[in-house]
Amino acid sequence: MNKYKILVLAGDGIGPEIVGEALKVLKAVERKYNLYFETRVALVGGASIDKYGIPLTDETLKLAKESDAVLLGAVGGPKWENLDYSIRPERALLALRKELGLFANLRPAKIYPVLADASTLKREVIDGVDIMVIRELTGGLYFGMPKGVEKLPDGTERGINTMVYTTPEIERIAKVAFEVARKRRKRVTSVDKANVLETTELWRKVVTEVHKDYPDIELSHMYVDNCAMQLVRNPKQFDVIVTENMFGDILSDEAAILTGSIGMLPSASLGQRVNKVGLPIGMYEPIHGSAPDIAGKDIANPIATILSVAMMLRFSFNLTKEADDIERSVENVLNKGYRTTDIKQEGTKVLGCKEMGDAIVREIEG
Ligand code: IPM
Ligand code: MG
Questions:
Q1: Is the bond preceding residue 146 a cis peptide, omega within 30 degrees?
Q2: Pocket mutation for ligand 1, best pick of 246, 249, 257, 262 (most atoms within 8 Å of C-beta)
Q3: 197-231 pLDDT, tens per residue?
Q4: In the listed set 215, 230, 257, which residue is the last one of a domain according to the structure?
Q5: CATH at 56
Q6: What is the residue range of 207's domain?
Q7: Is residue 119 part of a domain?
Q8: Tens digits of per-residue pLDDT, 54-66?
Q9: How many angstroms does the Cα of residue 12 sit away from the middle of ligand 1?
Q10: Ligand closest to CA 269
Q11: Is residue 249 annotated as part of the catalytic site, yes or no?
Q12: Residue 176 burial (CB < 10 Å; 0-12/13-18/19+)?
């Protein structure tokens, strides 16, 4: 069988805890299905800064490029907040995305019926929500040039970021959105600010053009401010949302919290590179951050990272039944009333991070 190489980058804060549980789950899947993954570990973010002075070394980047998939925890924390932008922990994440060409970030926000009451929104608003946010990940405001902060002759400063997209960049992310929608409910909402920003006027034009190849998909356009509102007003209207990098950063957090906790949401970042079996090489990570305030307390929710492993098996390794098994096991554990503190409800049993990992492993082992 194929031996897949996975680079594990636990990162900072709760990163090592949640990744530890995700690896336990991966091991359980290996045992059950007689698989073997070659995992390698490296430092990233603040952990790498502490040891090497920079958030991502050439060596780690090389390991990432040689892998079939990267599993990442989270980066960043107050300890490194005063460093220059160029060597902040977050830079590692951005560099990995850019260097690996991972332009399509898939962030599914799906409600577990049993968690519907853990949401801050009313059950009737969120029951049945199943949204896929597709965030463009290597362009737009995050990467556009020029950028930086410059000193002006009068002693004040000027900060600059540039939102820029080219036709091919928009075309490829639009295609991903339509392809993904084809396997879902066949509706795409393209989110822009075409009434103000020229870049996104181009975005709208190109998405409309690409759509001609997908007559079976229903396309609508929405301004980003309206989308932010519609997500809390009537989230069930959405199937696939495709949008610019920073809009996607913001809207995916909003979509995530509809489900009750940001601690539940996995993500997959995919590009054009494929592995030896022709499947996309990806980076898989929870969408939440490093949560330094709860780090080391064994109370973090490992589910987003565990579900990221499921996405990895599904997208990069085509191990569908194994991915289904993980997702079903997570759901079963929740149905049995087990919760981490972020999703606790009346009458449920609160588990620590490790205990939650163990419970999911037990469920997989059956
Ligand atoms: C995310 C995060 C990152 C981003 C940060 C940590 C750089 O918020 O993945 O959504 O802004 O992309
Ligand atoms: Mg974010």
A1: yes
A2: 249
A3: 999 999 999 999 999 999 999 999 999 999 999 99
A4: 257
A5: 3.40.718.10
A6: 130-257
A7: no
A8: 999 999 999 999 9
A9: 14
A10: 1
A11: yes
A12: buried
